[in-house]
Amino acid sequence: MVEPIFDYQFRLILIGDSTVGKSSLLKYFTDGKFAELSDPTVGVDFFARLIEVKDGTRVKLQLWDTAGQERFRSITKSYYRNSVGALLVYDICNRASFEHIPLWMTEAKRHIEPHRPIFALVGCKLDLVSNGGHREVSKEEAKAFADQNGLHHIETSARKGTNVEEAFRSVTQEVYNRIQSGEYKVEDGWDGIKTGFTRPNGLDFNLIEAEPAKLSCC
Amino acid sequence: METSDSECFESADEEIYTEKENKKSKKVASSPPPKDDLSKEVEDITNLKITESNDEQPVDLNNEPHEPAKATKIKPSKIGVKTNKSDNRTNSHSTMIDNKHIDTINVTENLEDHKDTPNEEVNMWDEDEDWEPIETKPEPPPPVSTNKSWGWDLSAVINAATVGVTTVTSHVSQGLSTVLETGIGAPDPAELARQHTQETETHNADDDSTQSTTNLFGFGNLVSGVTQITKLVETTGNKVILGGLDTLESIGKKTMQVLQEGDPGFKKKRALLNIEGEKPVLSQILREAKEKAEFENRLLEEQHFARKANYESLFDDHQGLMHLEALEMLSRQCSIKLERLTESRFGSELVELQETMNQIVELCELIEDEDELEDTSEIKEKLDSAVSEMVINISYDKLLTTRKEAEHWLDNINLQICSELELHEQAIDTLAQLTALAVERYHKIGELLLIKEHRSTADEADSLVQLTMILITLTGNMATKFSNKLSEKLSSSAHKDHINTLITNVYFESANSSSYLKNAFQLLIPVLQVGAI
Q: N or C: which end of chain A has fewer CB within 10 A?
């Protein structure tokens, strides 16, 4: 279980009502698996995954999976601060969970200040809709809200794996773009963005891999 | 071509050094006589004369012992590497010298070759425009030589034969043994040249003495006996060989001279070759490449193991750091709450609050108590009873499973197969994982305590103290078990120091584990304090 080498670490937080599917989304993203049943999250849980952005930069995503239950609200608030991105998660078949999104967003903005995180609006349980379930939030409505607030919107299914990767990838790419443009910086005392492991002894692993092949031909 | 050349030279190089060590090799010039091809030998007699007279040419061998000695300083291996245009000549010469030496090993077969060599070289060098032919063209046999004719020569030979068949034989056998002793037996050109000089001297002495006998007995002596002729042929054969070798020696020597012509000590040529010398010899490249590859492999392996056995990164891999960090956040949040509260209180209220705070800190003091925890069910029982006082829904099953798996692994490993590094790696990983799981539990306890409706701070503190002590003992015991396994390897291993370092490291990380646990527990104190007010 050796941790792969990465260039950046981004901390993303998932927030939203309980049972919308935050943990399932993360489990699929990090494990590629879907659990039919899972215990409600206590406080916060952690997931991690390495992905590459478009220019090949390796980013380790540290994913904070918060409890959606009201009783943990006071606790989860304290975890917001060090996030560079927040996924606002709702259940496509649960109107209330979508209606709470503005509250979650305000809460997150307030706690992450002075930093300005990237938000993404993620609808979950898309598979239920195609499976005869009742859609309570139309795609258009969600899209309109997202556009209005400058968010990226995507509908996903953790059961089928639909758009799960894309949901995280779009946020990661956006954070990375803002680093490139200088809008985001690595700051001491803030763990939203960290630089990753430098390659040991400045050795480039690609070079090392190339060496033996070169040797065999001389 | 480059390859074979340089290899040739390398082997020649080695032999030069063995030769120098071996004083016996002085007689190396002689080689076994071919007993089979008599007619050819007779034919070769003329040739021998040619070469002998050739030897007596103006080059003063005695006066130049230093030059061949210098020649040995040159690293033939470097000469062997090629080659820009200007060096081609040098290169081919050197190659030829070397070939000649190799030939001396096979004198029996190569008699023909020896005869031919001078011509070969002349032809070759003639092709070279830069070549100054004066030096190397074999001089035509001077008339004096031919005048000596059979009469002198044969009687001289007979004389030599009667006196010295035995000496020749011993000479030859000596030569043979030297050849054997020196491996492939290609002698140093300088050495050969020196021997040649000595040999020429003795020949000359022989000739002088026999010259007089020739005058006395004249041609008639030939009739003295067929048996003598047989002997004669035999000895002539020897001489032919000697002569052939002499030819080779002189060729070698002359080549060296030509090479040094206008370039004493090969300074210019060496300077030229030095440019080439920067291109290292093939074998050198390969050796260096191999060493480099080995070094890098070792480095990678060490890094791999270092990374695999790095407690902090493993602790992080098991999400320990994140939970610790989240626990710190919780703790800080509670501390801020407490500070605000203290600021808002005055007088006796403040004193009371501070007393309560201090009492809780006192309740949380750990008693160092090294319990032996062996049985899994016993540990589970203790943990459950400790946790029960907190009245929260928390289970240590995952931690207990991890511990059990580690024990199972330890019980089933084959110490013959399992290396100390693997064992150490497993030890560190187990410690890191157990500690990460424990820290995660502290974090969860903190969260659950904060959302608990009816707090009972004293019970919670007592519960956490017990819990922490059990966990510290548990990780400590695990470290001891791994260390014991490592110690078992001590007796059978050659790297005792290395194993001892690993054992020390296991204990070190075990101490690290308990400080992580204590630290996590300390972080919960504000959580307890918040519950008390």
A: C
